[in-house]
Amino acid sequence: MHALQRNNVQVLGDGAATLVFAHGFGCDQNMWRLVAPMFAARFRVVLFDLTGSGKSDPAAYDRKKYDSLHGYAEDLIEIIQATTEGPVIFVGHSVSAMIGVLAESRAPELFAAHIMIGPSPCYINDGDYEGGFSREDILSLLDTLSSNYLGWSSTMAPAIMGAPDRPELGEELTNSFCQADPEVAKQFARVTFLSDHRADVAKVTVPTLILQCSDDLIAPVTVGKFLHKAIPGSTLRVIDNIGHCPHLSAPEASVLAMEDFLVSLDPRRVSA
């Protein structure tokens, strides 16, 4: 199946440069609705659903292929090749930021820049590295998810969203989690939370914005600082926000940070 159908690819706007948006675990491209349209007047905007998520083709999900983030990186490369002739600015939320890193490693000519929103190369504490969770925490989280996915979703989604003054966003994320295929979600969660791509981020060669929230349960600021040090020439921007989804809970601040970064890029790097 062609990537455009497999991943429910949508293209908005027009421009010399292309922004490709990729959502995080348990979500779909609708999560970009407050941010992506802000760029469609000046950029070509590509939205899609990760295989196994949203309105992607359920028949395309292969448990073997997607037993690591490399399978999703293969899909991303196909999507970029199918939608643009020039290098793209890749906007990845959460785990998708690492999918972008892996895709760039395989096909560097396709990437002009990365915008990583709430990224984490490793969620588990390891020596001096503070990922935010102990291994026991992650294994317990995954066991609960495996035994009671709907209950886990109802508890975790509002905590992940944060935004205590906007409970409707936590409810939206809960509904998104609960609509996912439980078996796919269980595998994707294990792939996500047990992954370690700290060695891969050091291979990033293009300008990178690391956008973190000041209070994020999933990706604490310590992770952003690690990435800023690990990725040569990267920019770290911490916005005042509670939660892991600033593109929903703080869209204005997110767009402003992204705009500042885009202005800093060499136009020759982002033109088709």
Would you mind describing this structure in some detail?
The chain has 272 residues and is of the alpha/beta class. It has a single domain (3-132, 195-266), classed as Alpha/Beta hydrolase fold, catalytic domain (Rossmann fold, 3-Layer(aba) Sandwich), CATH 3.40.50. The chain is 43% helix and 15% strand. It has twelve helices and seven strands. A seven-stranded mixed sheet has the order 1-3-2-4-5-6-7, with helices on both faces. Strand 4 (88-93), helix 3 and strand 5 (111-117) form a beta-alpha-beta unit. It is globular. The model has no long low-confidence stretch (mean pLDDT 93).
What is the topological layout?
Blueprint: H1 3-6, E1 10-12, E2 18-22, E3 44-47, H2 69-83, E4 88-93, H3 95-106, E5 111-117, H4 135-147, H5 149-161, H6 167-179, H7 182-193, H8 198-201, E6 208-215, H9 221-230, E7 235-242, H10 246-249, H11 251-264, H12 267-270
Parallel strand pairs: 2-3, 2-4, 4-5, 5-6, 6-7
Antiparallel strand pairs: 1-3
Helix pairs in contact: 2-3, 4-5, 4-7, 5-6
